[in-house]
Structures are given as structure tokens and as C-alpha cells.
Design brief:
- By secondary structure, the chain is mainly alpha-helical.
- The protein has six helices and two strands.
- The protein is 39% helix and 4% strand.
Length: 166
């Protein structure tokens, strides 16, 4: 869904006591997900799942995401909100991105799809090792984020910082 509020509202569309929000929290944490319904022959298990959800939401609707006790279970803390510096409506332009940018993006995506990973002790793939430079950058980012969390006085914001290190 391109509208995140519609996605979240659909969690309880058919059942007010739905556990769909907890399902997404499990996905975020990489916890094993099982689907084993007695009336289904299509049972499955997802080990170490990883899902990225990208969508838009109007700024004025953000407060509804944590209204009441909606923010208590940490679901909202797991969402990374990004807002553009310039929120003015864009002007129409007849200029296009240079072809080289399209080519570079395509090449990047193709390289990413070709990454096969390194097999671990259980013969599972998709284990990728940091380069030394990447590891140093990650450590610096992690420490910066920890400092932000420690200095934050607003519990809601601190909760969001706490989830960034996953």
C-alpha cells in the first residue's frame, strides 16, 4: 500500500483483536514465523524473516499512529520516518535524469541480485560480511545512535532510537 495509514488500519479490518501488529513486530525482530492452520495444506515457516515496508503518510496523521496506547508495544518505534527538507510542491520540468544515472541504478540492482552470500555452518546462504571500512562506519553510526538515545528526554523518540540498531 502506498498509504501507510491504510496498511495499519487494515490490521484490525476483520478482527478488532487481530494479532497482525505483533506479526509485523516479529518480522522486524527476525523471529521465526510459522503458519500452520488446521484447515490449510499450505503450512510454511520463515526463518530469520526480513521485510521492508515503504510508504507515505501525511505529517498531520502521524499523531494518530500513537494515539491512545497504540505506541506501547514498540511497533511504531520500529518505523523509520523520513521527511524531505523541501516539502514544497514540485514544479513541472521537461528535463530528465541523465541516462548514465539510469544505467548506474540498473547495474547496482543487478549486482545486488547476484549476491549469493557465504554459506554458514548450517549451510544457509545470505550471510554477507562487512568490509573493514563498512564495519567502522557501522560502529560509528551505532555509537552515534546510542548517544542520541541516551540524551533524548522524550520517551517516544528514545524508543524509536532504540529500534534503529536492529
Amino acid at each position: 500500500m502506498d498509504e501507510l495509514m491504510a496498511w495499519i488500519y487494515n490490521f484490525t479490518r476483520y478482527n478488532r483483536n487481530s494479532s497482525e501488529e505483533e506479526f509485523w513486530i516479529k518480522l522486524f525482530n527476525g523471529i521465526l514465523v510459522l503458519s500452520d492452520r488446521k484447515d490449510s495444506c499450505n503450512s510454511f515457516a520463515l526463518g530469520q524473516p526480513n521485510v521492508n515496508v515503504i510508504g507515505g503518510i501525511q505529517t498531520k496523521l502521524l499523531s494518530k499512529l500513537i494515539a491512545g496506547n497504540k505506541g506501547d508495544n514498540g511497533f511504531i518505534d520500529r518505523i523509520i520516518f523520513v521527511m524531505a527538507n523541501n516539502t514544497k510542491a514540485p514544479k513541472v520540468s521537461d528535463s530528465e535524469l541523465p541516462t548514465c544515472i539510469d544505467d548506474e541504478w540498473r547495474d547496482f540492482c543487478l549486482k545486488l541480485l547476484q549476491v549469493s552470500g557465504i554459506k554458514d555452518d548450517d549451510n544457509r546462504t545470505n550471510v554477507l560480511e562487512f568490509t573493514h571500512e563498512a564495519k567502522l562506519r557501522y560502529i560509528a553510526w551505532q555509537n552515534y545512535n546510542a548517544d542520541l538515545q541516551d540524551q533524548e528526554t522524550d520517551d517516544d523518540i528514545a524508543g524509536m532510537y532504540a529500534k534503529l540498531d536492529y
